[in-house]
Amino acid sequence: MLDAIKRLREKLSLGRGGNSGKPVVEAASIDEVVKMELREMRSALETSIEAKLLRLSVTYKPVKTYSIEDPWARVIILRHKDTGEYLYYVNEVELNRDEKIIYNRIMDILTWELRHPTEEELRRMPGVSLAEKEKEFLVRQIKRIVNIYRIKMASEIEGVSWGKILYYMIRNNVGYGDIDVLIKDEYLEDISCDGVGRPIYVWHQEYESIPTNIIFNDERELDHIILMLAHKSGKHISVAFPILDATLPEGHRVAATFRKEISTKGSTFTIRKFKNRPLSIVDLILGGTLTPQIAAYLWILAEYRMPGMIMGVTGSGKTTTLNAIATLLRPNIKIVTIEDTPELRIPHENWVQLVSRPSYSVTGESIGEITLYDLVRVSLRYRPDVIIVGEVRGEEAYVLFQALATGHGGLTTIHSETIEAMIKRLTSPPMNIPLGYIPLLKFALAVKRIRMPDPTSKSGYSIARRVTDVWEIAGEHDYIQVARWNPFTKEHEHRFENSVVLDEISQLTGFTREEVMDELERRATVLTWMAKTGIKEFRNVAPLIFKYYYDPSSVYNRAIRELKM
Fold this sequence. Notes:
Elements: H1 2-12, H2 28-56, E1 60-69, E2 73-80, E3 86-92, H3 97-113, H4 119-124, H5 130-152, H6 162-173, H7 180-184, E4 188-193, E5 199-204, E6 208-215, H8 219-233, E7 243-247, E8 253-257, E9 268-272, H9 281-286, H10 292-303, E10 308-312, H11 318-326, E11 335-339, E12 351-355, H12 372-379, E13 386-389, H13 396-405, E14 409-415, H14 419-427, E15 443-453, E16 461-475, E17 478-486, E18 491-494, H15 501-509, H16 513-532, H17 538-550, H18 552-564
Parallel strand pairs: 10-14, 10-15, 11-12, 11-13, 13-14
Antiparallel strand pairs: 1-2, 2-3, 4-5, 4-9, 5-6, 7-8, 8-9, 15-16, 16-17, 17-18
Helix pairs in contact: 2-5, 3-5, 3-6, 5-6, 10-16, 12-13, 15-16, 16-18, 17-18
């Protein structure tokens, strides 16, 4: 086998790193070839998709089709004609026999030719992060090798699609192989594999939890995917350490188990996907999660560093809401965030992001482990104005409340659905917060996924996220509801006249209660203006929030002026 590869490399005149003494064709040339192919192949590809849909139409009816990487990969949402169940169908172009042979040969060459980029090469690569630069370097290496192979073997190979070959080369070496389409699909929030021989399930924004046509029937293939996920996240997983909890380069959170050490059905994984850009507070307003008035209320509380807690079940949007509220903090304060995996992204410059570290000890001792408890303790040495903990579930909660008692601001999330359940969790082991400390939290809000009537949907409803309750904590058993979602009117109701926290802010600032309420309305107007004029991108919203702190009149007057237009 090695001799065959050597002869093939000699035939292609490929030296190590491409230095063969002959001019190397620029990577752009293969791009031009692919463009020409597409002009000729597009109608044939469309015909192929129509033929596949015709075969599937015996059992299923297509309800939605969209492209992931046109024209090579598409998603078709199918609905069973008898049961009404949905199927997420990944439709990728297939390599023919000759293309598979060429693909395997180029993969062998790539194994020999691929090298790590130099520092100088990385500096010239586009991209912000090191991972993006290395990815771009690998793509260029693949294109170079594919292009040289195409030119050298042009007289011997006819009737193949170099575009398809290049797609699979990049998909399997730079992307995520068989699950690459799922990773790239922005409609998906969750990807779950339950083991060998079982279909991968996805959580689709429009169709909720549905199975896909992707099934790993070979244990080795599934194990390879798990090892690839661990490698991309910079973590380790093996028979000795069969659990993975990490973050992929795109920011997605992955949890996995290896082989049958933990799961009886073999390796498993779940990927919680996060959007490329964090949702801003204006995105939440446009999505109906909360109103401009609730957002303005949270803005005022954030300005005066009032501690708060966001509750909800898994996938309800706790972290998204936490991130959006964090952007409302004053731009000149110092923030320390503490997480298991880095998910928060805030625009403040004076921001320290701390991440816990698991232990890989085989003796059962937590050697080298750094817990959330350790990070919350050390964060106090940073003299933060606000401490943000991604989620409290253990003894780190006690240290956080100690910090709140000394005047630090704080924000965090917790798994719970009601304020009563939240208090029980906080005051029970392992958190053990004294009941007298609970009023250190000034507010708590609940985020839930709810079903909304949707006549455009086949099921008659759609899933939406809503801030269903906003409470203020006035005493040990004294909770004041200042906002709620009315499931009958499908609207939020505000009761800010009952707020004791706004009264507290009034006493701190010397403004009357009426002046504080006027300020709330002014900020609600600014947020309404941003929503109506399409200023929702995270990078556009944050500068306006910051500017409002320094020059509120100019921002407010602009909002009033443009709302009247």
